[in-house]
Specification:
By secondary structure, the protein is of the alpha+beta class. The chain contains 4 helices and 4 strands; from the N terminus they run αααββββα. It starts with a helix and ends in an 8-residue tail after the last helix.
Length: 161
Amino acid sequence: MTFLRRPLQAAASLLAFACALPALAALPTVPAPAAEAAPAVGAGSLLQAGFGMLVVLGLIFLCAWMARRFGLQRFGGGSLVKVVSSSMVGQRERVVVVEVGATWLVLGVTASQINTLHTLPAQAVPAAPSAAPLDTRTSQALGLFAQKLRESLGVRPRAGE
C-alpha cells in the first residue's frame, strides 16, 4: 500500500539499494566465533551497582543535612555580619537577630521581604540555661513509666531497682 501512495520514494530507495548492493558484495566477511557469547549480567554485578548507588545517594543526603544543620557558614571569623539567633514564628516567617559591627538588628523575615523590627547595641550572648532538676513527683512518675515499659518489653529489672 505504501508503494502505491509514494511511488517516487519507493523508487528512490530501490535505486539506492541497487547501487549499494555491489559494494556490499565486495566487502570481506569475517566469521564470528561461535564459542563467544555476550556476557550475562549476574546478580552480583546488579547488587554491586545498587550498593554503589545507595552509597552515593547517602552521601548526597548527608551533605544536604550537614549544610542545613550548620547553615553553610563560612569558616573564619572575618565576616562582618553574624546571625546571633533565629526563631520560627510561622510556616515561612521567622525573627532573626543579626549582629552588624556593634549593633544587633532584629529582623522579620518572610518569603518576600525583610523588615527591621528593632535595633539595639550588641550584647554578650547568654549561655544556654542548664536543665532544671526534676522535682520528686516528676522523678517518681518517670521511674514508674520506666518500670511499666520494662514489664511490657519483658525485661527483668536490674539488681537494686
